[in-house]
Amino acid sequence: MTPDPTPLTVTDEPHTEPVVSPSLASAATHTATTEPVQREARTITLEKLNAWYGDQHSIKDLSLTFAPNQATALIGPSGSGKSTVVRCINRMHEEIPGARASGAVKLDDFDVYDPKVDVVAVRRAIGMVFQKPNPFPTMSIFDNVASGLRLTARKVDPGHVESALRDAGLWEEVKDRLRKPGIGLSGGQQQRLCIARALAVEPDVLLMDEPASALDPISTLKIEELVQELKSRVTIVIVTHNMQQAARVADQTAFMLDGQLVEIGPTSRIFTNPTDSRTEEYVTGKFG
Ligand SMILES: Nc1ncnc2c1ncn2[C@@H]1O[C@H](COP(=O)(O)OP(=O)(O)O)[C@@H](O)[C@H]1O
Ligand SMILES: [Mg+2]
Predict the structure, then answer these.
(1) What is the number of the ligand closest to the CA of 84?
(2) Nearest to 65 by CA among 51, 47, 45
(3) Residue 46's beta-bridge partner residues?
(4) Is 240 in the pocket of ligand 1 (CB under 6 A)?
(5) From its phi and psi, is residue 21 left (phi > 0), alpha (psi between -120 and 50) or beta?
(6) Core-most of 116, 169, 190, 222, by most CB within 10 Å?
(7) Which CATH superfamily is domain 38-133+203-283 in?
(8) What pLDDT, on the 0 to 100 scale, is given for residue 14?
(9) Nearest C-alpha neighbor of 205 from the set 55, 85, 76, 50
(10) What's the predicted TM-score (pTM) here?
């Protein structure tokens, strides 16, 4: 397949009035408050998403919907394109040299790839957590959580930091050591710190790329419990290699193979009665 002639990359044209959706606008202009902000989660829709690394066509015509207030698991063998898909959703993909994408990613009706969009606002509305916890190494626990807020608010409300840490299930463990380095925490705590950092800017969507695969079983369970709690506020996309994890946390599950969507459906159906024989082979452990 030849690359799409109209790749969705940011134009170099200067744009004085960035276009942002209501949610993106609120993400960009939010000022700190101690009140937890209840927000309706949003739908992410992928329409004929294609992605390339140079000449390598890694995602092929992927169309699917991540429903609001649900956790959707992305499963599939290594190299099937799961990480690429999540990076396309918040436009991290375009940061990789030689990488590009085409098609549409929508946050409700808003086109994430609109050339006039403020890409920083996109990444605040669509937060991301990676496999390996990546707290800012020189920053304290407090400053890690406050880092996103500092982009918009000169003075960070400690109450806001506290509520993000509470939402990430970490507050009780760190409240007496907020000024200590984030990298002094255990792996599982660091991952919850990264979740707190993502939550502090009140995203609409949380992308989690194998968030527990580097963690011990107890830390993994804590992350899974968090997913269950957080989906009342944010739409969650969770990449996982672990079938049991998908079965435990995901409302719907999408199975990918070779950069294509094989099928998506309610998790229980995908695991017990898939329509495609390749899904059945994968979920029963015949390959992958
Ligand atoms: N940074 C990159 N540069 C070049 N190719 C990449 C890069 N990241 C991923 N790929 C390629 O894209 C395909 C999909 O990879 P990836 O999205 O990482 O899959 P998964 O997360 O399912 O393991 C693979 O063939 C992989 O080699
Ligand atoms: Mg991956």
Answers:
(1) 1
(2) 45
(3) 64, 105
(4) no
(5) beta
(6) 190
(7) P-loop containing nucleotide triphosphate hydrolases (3.40.50.300)
(8) 41
(9) 85
(10) 0.88
